[in-house]
Protein: glutathione synthase
Amino acid sequence: MNINKKTVIAPQIIEDVCEWAIMHGVAFRQADNTAKHCPLSIAPMTIEREVYAHLRRVVPLLTKLITNVAEDSDFLQSSLSDMAKADPFFGRLMALHQQIHGTATHLLDPARQPLLLMRTDFMDDRQYGAKVIEFNGIAAGMAPFGQRATEFHAFMQRQWPETYQSWLEDAAAIPAENEGLTQLANGIVTAATQIKADFNEQGSPVFLMVVQKNEDNVYDQHLLEIALQQQGVRTVRRTFEQLSAQLITGSNQRLILDGVGAIDVVYLRAGYQYSDYCAPDLHEAVCCYTLSQMRVFIEQHHVALNATVGQQLATSKTMQMLLTMMPAQEYVRWGVTLEEAQLIKSVLAEMKPINTDTIHWFNTQAIKSEWVLKNQGEGGGHCVFGDDISATLAKLTVAEYDAWALMQRLYPHERDVPTVAIRDAKATVVNDLVSEIGLFTAYFKGQPVTDLDGYAGYLIRSKPASENEGGIHSGKGILDSLVLID
Structure:
């Protein structure tokens, strides 16, 4: 009997894949407290070594730029003021930012020490090359899953070599190393150790992860915590609501968590949407006021923090647009050389603000399939494509324009050969898979804190080209990894 590899994956392989994923924490928690494996690609995507090397070279420079933009409070306040009026959530962030940093006439110096754990997402466009989709400066997770996906494909190569090779695009391709989990943990340990030393204290550093209530992506988070625990760091998890009753100030602006003690690093895996600050029991006149004030409170203490409010503003879609529209030489004010600025420019896709002129141009002259309309939202479901863009623009009021931007739509290379997605313990052949490449970086107080000059591994999410939403959570995405070809 002739088995067609395009239609069949042996049940034993599917079983092995699902069990490997669960055993290695590559899973989501379900509402009934069971675990379900993440969707996975059976074999990795290929990328040209030169393209990958270029991205590796650029992302630390981008992170250096964003680090310094995030600390330029005057620039953030002046350049994002219109967007803050148009988007209520960012209006709240801007108000928090002003509380933390003061005004141009009365500056405040927050005690927190900025730790930027960033993921920059790219697509390798068929015509224009690899370009940035977005910056993620808050809750930039899934580095552990990224490293695990690379390890999973190494497992497939060893255990099921014939299957692995049969779905690989190029038999000569070499896996791209991925230490996303390891390097992110190293960066956090470096920051925690420095803060601990600032107070001349002994004992284990303490890492606080701020999480969403009923979070389903707990395993990715716990993998990071385990890696920190293995390096002698104590880890704790709290929601903003819990923190509002548990955080206090110690001597010398030390941040203290009731029942735990001094905190060295705070890492926000929540805080990018209103619901993270919502506490209905408080009956607040201004939505989410009390819990969002926890951001201000934390920044007033000597603690390593990701993300600062400044970092969140500096990685917004509007800031991405402003940096894209700015001449490269203007970047020099934020500590990058002109040569570095030009490298950064090489990966930024064209963006346009929304105003009456842009809307008229889009409706009368633009090729609509070449653009995507974005608001300031994080995660899936915040993009509008094609003919739907005109309909959405027509519904916007003038007051809402500054919350939106047009961005060049990226059309990445489709995989040359079909692949198999393993989802819900079933195998599905995908003929038109495309991939989103997220590269992690870690900087503390403006300096790289990984063994790779600030670079910290990658996350690959692949999806059918026909699908607009490629999130692992919110779309048709599957975890993937990279192999390099010349």
